[in-house]
Design a protein that fits this description.
Elements: H1 9-47, H2 53-86, H3 92-97
Length: about 100
C-alpha cells in the first residue's frame, strides 16, 4: 500500500481484500478437491487390510486430510519462493517517481 497514491488508498485496500478473499476461497476449494479425490483411494487401500470399518474410515479420513495439507504446504512454499525470487523493491520505484 506504500506505493499507492493517497487518493487511491481505498481502491487499493479493496483490491487487496478481494484478492485475499479469492485466495482463501481457492485454497479451501483445492483442499476439498484433494481430500475428495484421495479419501476413497485411502479407504480402498486400508479396506484391504480387513480392519474394523470405523478404524478404517478414520484412518482414511486422516490420510486424506494429510494429503490435502501437504498440497497446501507445497503451494505455500512455492509462493514463498516466488516472492523471494521476485525481489525486495516493494514499490520503491513508484515512491521515487512521486506517485
Amino acid at each position: 500500500m506504500g506505493g499507492v497514491p493517497r487518493t487511491h488508498l481505498g481502491m487499493a485496500g479493496g483490491m487487496l481484500a478481494t484478492a485475499r478473499n479469492v485466495g482463501m476461497v481457492l485454497g479451501i476449494a483445492l483442499a476439498g478437491a484433494v481430500f475428495n479425490h484421495r479419501w476413497p483411494v485411502h479407504l480402498a487401500i486400508l479396506s484391504a487390510a480387513r480392519m474394523d470399518p470405523a478404524v478404517t474410515a478414520a484412518a482414511a479420513f486422516a490420510a486424506a486430510v494429510r494429503d490435502a495439507m501437504l498440497v497446501g504446504a507445497a503451494l505455500g512454499a512455492a509462493g514463498s519462493l516466488t516472492s523471494l525470487v521476485r525481489g525486495g523493491a516493494g514499490g520503491s520505484e513508484l515512491r521515487a517517481e512521486g506517485r
